[in-house]
Amino acid sequence: MALTKNQIGRYSRHLIMPEVGVKGQEKLAESKVLCIGAGGLGSPLALYLASAGIGTIGIVDFDVVDLSNLQRQILHAEDRVGELKVESAKKRLLELNSDINVNTYNLRLTADNALDLFKDYDVIVDGTDNFATRYLVNDACVILGKPNVYGSIFRFEGQATVFNHKDGPHYRDLYPEPPPPGMVPSCAEGGVLGILPGIIGVIQATETVKILLDVGQTLSGRLLIYDSLKMSFREIKLRKNPDTPKVEKLIDYEEFCGLNKPEENETELEISIDEFSKIQNSMENIKLLDVREPGEYEICKLNNSKLIPLGDLTSRVHELDTADDIIVYCHHGMRSFQATRILKGMGYKKVRNLAGGIDAWAAKYDEKMPRY
User: Which residue among the candidates 141, 257, 300, 330 is catalytic per the annotation?
Assistant: First the structure.
């Protein structure tokens, strides 16, 4: 793919670098990169891949642009709130570089579609924020032999590495098993510094370009950890684990991560927001337990609720009475369901989880309550 006169002018600072040159830039123009997610990490990642001249960029995301995204997701803008993220991203990338192709996939990545989506791309870049999708991305990359450029962010800390590259380790070598559901908050639950994904997303973009050009030393075999409060980087060596089971097929990742709906015998652990609304005037004998983080509690809360973050629950369980009728809630109901299971296992008989959490309650029953 010969470069045009305009492309030579655009990429001139690449062309004069011996590690890139004309041949390298032509290789980038012929390359295809699939970005999983058009959010915090996907934003700087996609922007820099587009500016670098990656010929085809695929974007997988099933969400719409929300006002809360704009604190960190720089692909999007105020006038695109409510628009599909993949469409908003495509517009911005083509504004930046009209020479590239942008393929959009407005869908949820699943075990049924991952292999078909991944097979035509050279590199897969994981910008997701949940364990089920990370395991899915990893396993699909292992089966197809695709490099997986990984990044994650939480509060003030970020991580980045390259999995499954040149016989290097993959995600299951680092995390053989997922944590219990709700024990590790997502960015939506625990927060993230808006600038942080810019650092990690740019690192992912850099690793992607290095892989495509086959230059330098990638992060394969090294987990890079960035602490923005200390403004420091450190590395942890990663090795292939001979005990890691061979990945031969995709599975039900929701079930693997314990995210499936409760079994029939667990439905008694839940109370719907509709049922909760009916008992609002007779709450004298009911205790409300909030298991979110203190910062979330400051944003909004249910009246007369007690805050004990999920991570502190076992050490502060003595603050609760086993004789009480307890309703547990969190943001969306995942952490509170985990807390309900914990309390049940510790002898609390009358404990239920508020299904859908405080966000579902605010959406249907309290329009004045802030949502985040």
Answer: 330
Helix 196-213 with 42-52: angle, nearest 10 deg: 40
CATH number for the domain including 301?
3.40.250.10
Q: Where are the beta strands (DSSP E) in the chain?
A: 32-36, 56-60, 101-105, 123-126, 148-154, 157-163, 222-227, 232-237, 270-271, 286-290, 305-307, 325-329, 351-354
pTM comes to: 0.82
Dump pLDDT digits (tens) for 241-282: 999 999 999 999 988 987 765 554 556 789 999 999 998 777
Catalytic residue from among 35, 141, 187, 257: 187
For the question of residue 35 being annotated catalytic, the response is no
Give tens-digit pLDDT for 304-324.
Answer: 999 999 989 999 999 999 999
Active-site residue flag, 300: no
For residue 14, being part of any structural domain is answered with no
Query: What single-letter amino acid sits at 259?
Result: L
